[in-house]
Each structure stands twice: as C-alpha cells, then as structure tokens.
Amino acid sequence: MKHQKNFLLILVTTLALFGCHMLRAQTVDIVPRPQEILIGEGSFMVDEQVQIAASAKSRETAVILQNYIAEITGYQVDIVEATGLGSNIIGFELDEELAEEAYRLVITDKGVLILAASAAGWFYGVQSLVQLFPDRTDVPERVSTFRIPALTINDAPRFSWRAFMLDEGRFFKGAEQVKLLLDEMAHLKMNVFHWHLVDDQGWRIEIKKYPLLTEIGSKRKSSQVGPLKWESPIQSAEPHEGFYTQEQIKEIVAYAQKRHITVVPEIEMPGHSSAAIAAYPWLGTAKKEIEVPIRFGVSEDVYDVSDPKVIEFLTDVLDEVIELFPSEVIHIGGDEVKYTHWNSSISVQEYMQENGLVTPAELQVFFTNGISQYLQRKDRRMMGWNEIMGHQLHDYQDAAKTKSDQKLAESTVVHFWKGDLELATQAAESGFEIVNSIHSSTYLDYSYTSIPLSKAYAFDPVPENLDPRYNDNIIGTGCQMWGEWIPTDGQMHFLAFPRIAAYAEVGWTEVENKDFDAFKTALPRLQQRWSRKGIYYAPDSVVEGESTASE
Fold first, then answer.
1. How far apart, in whole angstroms, are the C-alpha atoms of residue 270 and residue 284?
2. Residue 353 located in a structural domain
3. Of 150, 146, 136, 131, nearest in space to 522 by CA
4. Cα separations (Å) of 214 from 383, 516, 534?
C-alpha cells in the first residue's frame, strides 16, 4: 500500500507541474460527459511493456481493460498484484472517500491510476479511459503502441437510477439483442435494465408453477401492422412467439451484473394481463376464455383482485420472479387499467363494500398496497407507473371513478410517465422517490420528429417548479423502448441509437456540465463503435427531426 501511495503522489505531483487547466468542452470526447476534466501536457504511451496492477477486488475490471487493449494491439498486457507500482503501470486503487459509483482517473506520462470506492467506480473509470483509446475502426490493422492524453477526471453520476427499458411483451427480441443492449448501456454508464416481460400481447418469462403462461400466453396468431398504427385494420397473418426460460433469465442477469447493471423486471398487474388470462381464464374478472390479443392498445379485462385465488397466483409468480432477480425493486406496472369489468362484477363490488372502497381507483390502490406489503416481507420494494397513485390520466377513465382517499405505500417508487408534471412534483414533495420518464421526452418508440436528439438531450428529470429541498427524491430517469410497432431489431436500433447516448448523459452529467455541441462532437466515435457491432443507428440527417422515416 505504501508503494501505491507513493505512486499516486508521483502522478499527482507530475500533473501539477504540467500546469493543469479546465478543459474546454470539445477537447476530450467522452460520453457521458464527466463532471470535471483537467488536462496536463504530454501523454502516456501504451505498449507491450505496460502492466495492469490490480488487487483481488479490482481484478475483474482489470481483465476488462486488458481485453480492450488486446482488441487494439493484438497482445495481452500482464496483470500483476497491486504492489511495487512504478512507471508504465495502469493501476487500480481503493479510495473509500469517493461515492459509490464515483471514480478518479489520473493520467500522466508516467502511468495511469483509477481510484474508486467500489468495483462499479473502477468499471466506469475504465469506460472513460477506453474512450481515449483509438477506435478499432481507426486502426484497421492492429497497432503495437498508442498514446492517451495526460489528464485528470473527477467524476460521479448525477442520479442513481439511469435506465433503459425494453418492452418484449409485444415483440420478443431474444438473448443476443438483450446482451447487445446491456453492452452499450454499460459503455454509457447506465445502470438499470428495466425489462418489460409481461403485457396483453405476450408473456415472456417462464413460471414453473403455471406452465400455461408460456405454453399459451407467449404466443399469438398475428400482429397488428400498418401505417395507421393504432387504428390500422391490417394484420400480419404471421404467428409470433417467444419466452425466456428461467435458466436464460439467470444467465442474462449474471451478464448484466458483470457490467454493474441491475435488471429490474416488470410484471404487469392488475391491467395489461390478457396474455395471462388467455392462459388461465379464471384470472380475469369476466372469467371467460379469451385469446392472446392480436391488436395493440389497452385491453379491458383485468385481474379479478377480489378473488383470493388470483392474489395467490400473483404472489406465486412474484415468488419465482424474486428468486430470479436480485434487484431490490420489482416493477408491477399498474398503468392503463380499464375499470369496465370491475364496475360490472358483482363479486368485485361486494369486495369493495367489505373493504370500504368507493371507487375503482381506491380498489387499485388498495390492491397495490397489498402487493407492496407482500414485497416488503420479501425485503423488496414495489415500483409502478404513476397511475398507481390513483390519478385520472386517460380519456377512457371517468374522473369520478378515479377519486381516491387511499394513500399509496410510502416505500413505493413512483415511475412518472404521464400527466401534468405537477403530479410528479406533488409526489416528490410527499416523500415518494420518483423516476421521471415523462413520455413526451423519453419514449424511444416516438419518432425523431416528436423527440429529436436535441430534445432528448435537453430533458431534465427534476421538475422545474420542485422545491430544491425535495430534489433528492428524484432518483433518476429512464428511456423506454416500447415495442408495439417495432417488430425488427433494426427498427429498434434506429429508434434507440443515438438517443440512448443522450439519455445516458441526462442521467449521469450535472446540468451545468452538459454541452450539446460537445456531445455531437463526441457522437461519431460512438457511431463507429455501433457500426462495428452491427447496430443500425439513425443517421445524422434524421436525428434532429428532419425526416419522418422512423414513423
């Protein structure tokens, strides 16, 4: 440890002698943009003599860096124990004074040091470091040496929740595409993969106690298509199916963990439940047989939350989900619940009277709180779209039916997506933690005409009128890749890239350090990476809304 401290002192002293100054926004191209960059003079040369110094705790990250260097040079530099550090070393050091995901990257002509309090911090330091390396497309033939500029980066994320959501309830994408997305999320320092696995049009996760969920619920005989979208009468006449086995889920969760990404599953309830009801009709309020819907939009039948057998089913499902996903947070959806069947059900009305519930909205909050209590007993927290607070957000809802005196469980994470931002402000000021994913600024299925790259980049998850005392209750944001009209991988790539990079910077970089011009200057480097990985991103002529080709 004494040698490590001496090496750090040499690095910092050398950097000070170089006469550091604040870097202009466009000088170093790193996405998301670090909070502070100081540059010195000179550079550090990476060659075969370089060694990576790592402890047992940092070795996994050291191997990642070793592989990055090998991609460019064709050789593997040695990884040595974290003792006897000197020149020509890229070292990892523990600094417990740094925040959980923070890092400090110091580069001089003598060596490189990455300091962090956790493996996540080291990992993010490496992601910044490798963006200073030449891209593989810049060196079609491997090079034996390359140089990186002398600088110091002090960096930490603005928000703890930096998410990308993939909806596979509508169109199943498969493990290869999920892993590709996880790789790009990790490179952009995003840390939550919100996995929408259940919806009306498909159930995509194996539940061993209820095999019909995938035998029946994962398949539909056709899909709505056409330029009119929601109003289109056209069908594909092509079956669609797919689901993940529990072993595949475990593999993907482990893959994400190695990249410091938490996988948060979304299991919709009490609405968006048609695929489950098609598998087990007794789950529905109407108790009638239905097919997995072939049209998109909001189906009417919902879980019969007055039936103890249905509650048992949902807790059984959650038990298996909890075993698969170590995430503290479990997302239950809760959005777009049509109350038609509850209003016409005698048993539901009797249940409401027994529990002193006046409106369907009160019934939903009452049910949701029961699920929250169940998850709390399992040491988990519930998350849901902001309808779970009982707000009237949709034209098909009667305002009188959405009035509620029920108070949502305080431990709930509210995922704000629709309605006046004042609702998010009120929730934050009431003590709820909020993830702000307002649809008009974060939905990736919207065209570039609706959300151009500049609008995505300019989004601020903290509502403008929120009292600063409650800013910490806005824990982050997410960008949502809803899948109704995105049947192919290429369409998903086109709409997600490059906007995912803009949202990554929204989640990571403090507002005062953001610079859209600098972001655009850095974008070509990412585009080179995406091209090499077979990602069909939207061209520059489209991303500022100059074309409606994505609609």
1. 10
2. no
3. 131
4. 24, 45, 30
Task: Pick the last residue of a domain from 97, 126, 155.
Answer: 155
Q: Which of 58, 168, 34, 166 has the alpha carbon at shortest distance from 113?
A: 58
Task: State residue 387 phi and psi, 5-degree precision.
Answer: -60, -25
Nearest to 368 by CA among 264, 482, 265, 267: 267
| Owner of token pair 């607070």 | 389
Residue tagged active-site, from 336, 387, 433, 484:
336
165, 125: one domain = no
Indicate the burial class of 78 (C-beta count within 10 angstroms; 0-12, 13-18, 19 or more): exposed
Pairing of strands 111-116, 103-107: antiparallel
**What domain range includes position 71?**
2-155
The pLDDT tens digits for 428-479 are: 999 999 999 999 999 999 999 999 999 999 999 999 999 999 999 999 999 9
Residue type at 490 in one-letter notation: G
312-331 pLDDT, tens digit per residue, is 999 999 999 999 999 999 99
User: CA-to-CA distance for 273 and 285, rounded, in angstroms?
Assistant: 11
Cα separation, 394 vs 383, whole angstroms: 20
DSSP tag of 146: E
Is position 336 annotated as part of the catalytic site?
A: yes
Half-sphere exposure of 466 (CA within 13 A, CB side): 25
